[in-house]
Specification:
Blueprint lengths: L2 E3 L1 H14 L4 H8 L3 H8 L6 H11 L7 E3 L11 H10 L6 H24 L1
Antiparallel strand pairs: 1-2
Length: 122
C-alpha cells in the first residue's frame, strides 16, 4: 500500500489553527520549527518533506493519518468527527483546567449533535 499527503487538507488545517491563534504564517513556521518558505510552497500545493510534515502535524496536535490519502484515490478519506479533531487541540491548551475543558467539549458535542440533526432533516 502506498499513500500521499493531502497537502490541501493539511494547509487548510494549519490556516484554521493559525487564524484561531491570531498568528502570522511566520509565527506558525517559527513555532512549528519549519521554514516560512515551506508554508508558502504548501499554499501552492507542494508537499512538505517528511520532517516538515511531522513538525506541522505535531504543531496541530492531530494524527498524521488525518492528512494522508491512498495513492490513486481520488476522494479524500472521510474526515474524523469534529469532536475527535477538537479534543486534542483543547487538551493541549494549558489555559483551561480539566473542568473547563470538559465544559467546552460538552458545548461542542451538543452543537455538533444539533448540526447533524439539522442536516439529516434537509
Amino acid at each position: 500500500m502506498s499513500g500521499r499527503i493531502d497537502t490541501r487538507r493539511l494547509y487548510n488545517a494549519l490556516d484554521g489553527q493559525r487564524q484561531a491563534r491570531n498568528q502570522s504564517w511566520r509565527q506558525v513556521a517559527t513555532e512549528a520549527g519549519v521554514s516560512p518558505s515551506l508554508l508558502s510552497r504548501m499554499r501552492n500545493e507542494h508537499r512538505p518533506d517528511l520532517d516538515g510534515f511531522v513538525a506541522l502535524v505535531q504543531w496541530l496536535g492531530l494524527p498524521a493519518e488525518s492528512f494522508m490519502v491512498e495513492q490513486g484515490q481520488e476522494e479524500v478519506t472521510p474526515e474524523p468527527e469534529f469532536e475527535a479533531q477538537f479534543a486534542p487541540l483543547l487538551r493541549a491548551r494549558s489555559d483551561f483546567n480539566e473542568a473547563e475543558q470538559e465544559y467546552l467539549m460538552d458545548i461542542v458535542s451538543a452543537t455538533m449533535k444539533k448540526i447533524r440533526a439539522d442536516r439529516r432533516e434537509r
